[in-house]
Structures are given as structure tokens and as C-alpha cells.
Write a structure and sequence with these properties.
The structure is a homodimer. The first copy, chain A, is 0% helix and 35% strand. By secondary structure, chain A is mostly beta strands. The first copy, chain A, has a single domain (8-134), classed as YaeB-like (Elongation Factor Tu (Ef-tu), domain 3, Beta Barrel), CATH 2.40.30.70. In chain A, strands 2-3-8-7-4-9 form a six-stranded antiparallel beta barrel. In chain A, strands 5-6 form a two-stranded antiparallel sheet. In chain A, strand 7 (93-105) and strand 8 (108-111) form a beta hairpin. Chain A is globular. Chains A and B meet through strand 1, strand 4, strand 6, strand 7 and strand 9 of A and strand 1, strand 4, strand 6, strand 7 and strand 9 of B.
Chain lengths: 135, 135
């Protein structure tokens, strides 16, 4: 068993998973990332305007699901969850590629086009590497 | 607190983190992914030759680190971990983009160029989406 502690939370006007687009590029709103003060030092080199990967814990997901209809469309054939981006999966970790739009304080950052709902725990932030290979 | 259960483990000839390249594209070997039978159904639509993202738990990482010398080079200035791909970070989740080279059984898959060491827990497998935006 592995234990994680969130490093922060998403603050968004998306309140329910049903309101969220499937991907950030499909009309998701801006969101604030509120980080815990204890990890603030690790954020100091994030730069305005750059893209980062945000890893989240999709805490409303069903972790017992192994087959899904892609995009929740019951007319599509069932697929194994590991060939889909479904939130429902054994370890529901979300990966979101977003651009930093504002750095208000050392632990409060606004990003564009984030499809995660309000209150979603943040697990990690990583740089987007230039080479496709390394993403 | 969030708890994860590994869905499998990496089997590799890389035995120590010191032996592993920093990125899979820098000379990492093939590796076997051995999944637990309970989640096998979720793997059924993975296709030979395609690229996938493997999420791992970097269980040898130091979780108290917030500043690092990039690429472990002490001559580089210290950077906040969230602007680096350092394994040492509060929630050390690795993201590896690899190609599926062999599907031996429903739960035993060989991939190319994986920099994770032998025994590394696997947390998730996700498809690589076509649009860069969504990776």
C-alpha cells in the first residue's frame, strides 16, 4: 500500500464531474491551484506563461471499474480502462497539461483550461519537456 | 491521506537508480511489465506497437526534498522540484512514454526504453492522445 498526501487543491467553478469536459482543450475554465505552504519552496521556479503537467487525484472516481464505454457513450463498445482516459480506474490519477496564467502568491497559481472539478487534490506538478518522447 | 495499490511491477535489468538514465530516450533497456491478475481485464485493448504512458511509484525517492540540482549535477543552481523531473519530490510519481513491443500474456507486456528500475510499482497505464495538448 502506498500513501500520498495532497500538495494542494483545485479551486474551480466546475463543481460536479458531470459539468467537466473530458479534456481541458474542450472548453474547460481557468482554475486556481492552491498549494499547501509546506511545499511552497518547491514551486519557486515555475514561470508565468509556461506549460506544466498537473497530476491530480480524481477522488470521485469508481476504482472498481476495468471496462468502460469511452466518453460515457453507451453506444461505443466497452474498452479496457487502460486504453482510455476514463477517470474510473483502479488508481485514478489525472494528468492535465495547462498553461500558467497568473502567479498571485508563492502558493496560489492560476492556470488555463483545467477540466478538474473544485476540491480535486493535487499530487504533483512537472515541467513539460520539449521532446515529445519525454512527455 | 490517499492510498494506492500497485497494479503491477516493472521487471528490468536496471537494478539500482544510479544505473538508470534520466529519461527513457537516453539509452534505457526494454523491460517487462508484470500486472496483477485482478486488473487483467482492463489491459485487454492495449495494442502491440502503440505508445502508452506508464505511471509508476518511484519508491526509492526522497519525499522530503523541495530543491534539487537538476540532473544531480552539483554545479547547476538549485531549482524547485516542481520545475524538474527529479524523482525526489513529495509524491514521486513517474510518467514514462514507452512503446509496446510484446504482449506475452494478458498480464505480461514488454515495452521499449523504460528507465524505471526492477521492482518499481506500476500505478496506471494510459493511452497517448494524438493531440499534444492532451498529453
Amino acid at each position: 500500500m502506498i500513501t500520498l498526501t495532497p500538495i494542494g487543491y483545485v479551486r474551480s467553478r466546475l463543481l460536479e464531474p458531470a459539468d467537466a469536459p473530458k479534456q481541458g482543450s474542450e472548453g474547460a475554465p481557468d482554475a486556481w491551484l492552491e498549494f499547501t505552504p509546506a511545499i511552497g519552496l518547491g514551486l519557486r521556479d515555475l514561470a508565468l506563461g509556461t506549460e506544466v503537467l498537473i497530476l491530480t487525484w480524481l477522488d470521485r472516481a469508481d476504482r472498481d471499474v476495468l471496462l468502460v464505454h469511452p466518453r460515457d457513450d453507451p453506444s461505443t463498445p466497452l474498452r479496457g480502462v487502460f486504453s482510455t482516459r476514463s477517470a474510473d480506474r483502479p488508481n485514478p490519477i489525472g494528468i492535465h497539461r495547462v498553461r500558467i496564467a497568473e502567479i498571485a502568491t508563492a502558493t496560489r497559481i492560476r492556470v488555463l483550461d483545467l477540466e478538474a472539478v473544485d476540491g480535486t487534490p493535487i499530487l504533483d506538478v512537472k515541467p513539460v519537456l520539449d521532446r515529445i518522447k519525454d512527455q
